[in-house]
Amino acid sequence: MTAQSRTAKSIKNSSVALIFYFINLVLQFFSRKIFLDHLGADVLGLNTTATNLLQFLNLAELGIGSAIACTLYKPLLERDTTAVNEIVSLQGWMYRRIAWVVIGGSAVLMCFFPWIFAKMTLPMWYAYASFGVLLVSALLSYFVNYKQIVLSADQKDYKIQYSYKASMLVKTLCQIFAIKYFDNGYVWWLVLEVVFAIVASAALSIMVRRTYPALKTDLSQGKQLSRKYPEIITKIKQLFFHRIGGFALSQTSPIIIYAYASLSLVALYGNYMLIITGIISLIGAIFNSMNAGVGNLVAEGNTARIMSVFEELFSIRFLMSCTVCFGVYMFTPEFITLWIGSEYVMDSTTLGLMVAILYINLTRLTVDAYINAYGLFNDVWAPVIEALINICLSILLGYFFNLHGILVGVLLSLIIIVFLWKPYFLFKVGFKKNIRIYIRLYLKHFLAFLFALLLTLLFIHYINLSSSISVTNFILTGLLYIIIFALFLFVGLYLISASMRNCFSRFLKLY
Fold first, then answer.
1. Is residue 244 part of a domain?
2. How many domains does the chain have?
3. 188 pLDDT tier (thresholds 50, 70, 90)
4. pLDDT of 4 above 70
């Protein structure tokens, strides 16, 4: 596959994902509003709790999808149909076993529903029905939808959007209509959830079958195939630690915050996190679709080309990440004021720490993409150490400095493992290059960032626009400042970084 073809496919995947992201965002906003107005907060809370319980059970997946994806890149590149069929068959076999674990765990968990939902004012059948329909959707991903991994690994994510995601959007529209206009709205919501889960799975299966008519799976060969592909089993065992570590990291931080902070502070923090989570999802919609292209490139084995594309991706993602973080830091207080009131604005130190955490989580995307492409999951100690640093420092610093201390604990764990260790690990084991290449690359980009930030702050100081807080002024001022910063940063990167110049030339050639 040519570099031009990879770039074109990445752009197509990202464009389609971005369109579906914004459509879904709008629908979710209206759906939540309709849900609250017609069914009440109790039903919404029940639905959220049922989703969280199921996410806990889905930990049994253990990262099998990631292990299968990085193993598929090479046979897809070489058009080795036999190997692709065998690897997907192995995945189906493992997913079938996991599905039965999830079913068993769900049966045990539902025995405790009378205690879990003891304070619920709704009839108990609401809890069982809510969990049951969500369980059906989850089981379909294990029994039917697993074949979509071929589309993802072959840079055809847009076909998943057109089939499965489009069906889910229609489902949300139907649920909004049913809740608003029909009696027994929640019953209709439950029925539509099951019906469209089946419809979406069928649409996805048809898409896979049409795209890969030669794809034939034989789950009965799973045990023999697990011996034929021991590297997949090894990667799954390694990913187990990464998944558990990541789960512990994401679940313990909120608990520590709740333990130390007042309820009012927790509410303020939740508002800010809603914005940041939306930003992360947006960037993910843009860049995650490029990961299969990275896997395809790594499978080719052209070391010079691999390094060149790494530097280009680093440049464009650094530009996007810094621009987003600048916008979040500069305009979140005004957005909060316009949205829910000035009394919900937090201090600048808290916002600065949250933006620093956001920055690391966004700029890590390039390194993570290559680590996944190489299948480098053997640093099983890293997520464990990261979780320990996070938990211990958050508890210790949170005791003395409240929310600031907790956020510093999270930030330090990310700096040590994500910011320092992961690039070193990739360059040493994956690229087999000296880490000084990355350090020089990073320092160039950071200097360009300082240049852009200084010029933008000078611009803001001397071109003092109206400070009145209104929606129109907020939008116009925000767009102007963000565009000015992005232009300054782009010019700085273009002048001092060959990777940005190469990336820009590549995009020009496409049009």
1. no
2. 2
3. very high
4. no
Q: Which residue type sits at 273? A: M
Residue range 463-481: mean pLDDT, rounded: 78
422 pLDDT band (50/70/90 cuts)?
very high
- Measured CA to CA, the distance from residue 240 to residue 246 in angstroms comes to 10
Helix count (H) and strand count (E) of the chain?
Answer: 22, 0
Residues 6+ apart with CB under 8 A from 22: none
**How many beta carbons lie within 10 A of that of residue 386, not counting itself?**
24
CA 458, chain centre distance (Å): 35
Single residue among 169, 204, 228 that ends a domain in this structure: 228
Considering only CA atoms, which of 91, 61, 101, 98 is closest in space to residue 226? 91
Q: What is the pLDDT of residues 76-96, one digit of tens each?
A: 888 899 999 999 999 999 999
Q: Provide the residue range defining the domain that includes 2.
A: 1-228
The owner of tokens 């084991």 is 429
Residue 63 has pLDDT above 80, yes or no: no
What pLDDT, on the 0 to 100 scale, is given for residue 250?
67
Is the residue at 123 inside a domain? yes
The label of the residue with tokens 């129109």 reads: 472
286-339 pLDDT tens trace: 887 777 788 888 888 888 899 999 999 999 999 999 999 999 999 999 888 887
**Does the predicted TM-score (pTM) go above 0.85?**
no
State yes or no: pLDDT of 2 exceeds 60.
Answer: no
Helices 348-363/381-413 angle, 10° precision: 140
Query: Which string of DSSP letters, residue by residue, matches 212-236?
Result: -TT----GGGHHHHHHH-HHHHHHH
Out of 228, 247, 270, a domain closes at: 228
Radius of gyration of the chain (CA): 24
Residue that has been written with the tokens 């829910």 in this structure = 340
In a domain, 439, yes or no: yes
Residue 474 contacts residue 332 (beta carbons within 8 Å) = no
d(CA 320, CA 293): 19
SS3 label, residue 468: coil
The sign of the CA dihedral 360, 363, 365, 370 is: negative
What's the confidence (pLDDT) of residue 37?
Answer: 78
CA atoms within 13 A on the CB side of 196: 20
The verdict on residue 482 lying in a domain is yes
- Give residues with Cβ within 8 angstroms of 164, minimum separation 6: 145, 148, 200, 201, 203, 204, 207
The single residue listed with the structure tokens 């809890």 is 127
CA–CA dist 421, 444 (Å, integer)? 20
Residue type at 174? C
Angle at 368 between CA 366 and CA 371, to 5 degrees: 115
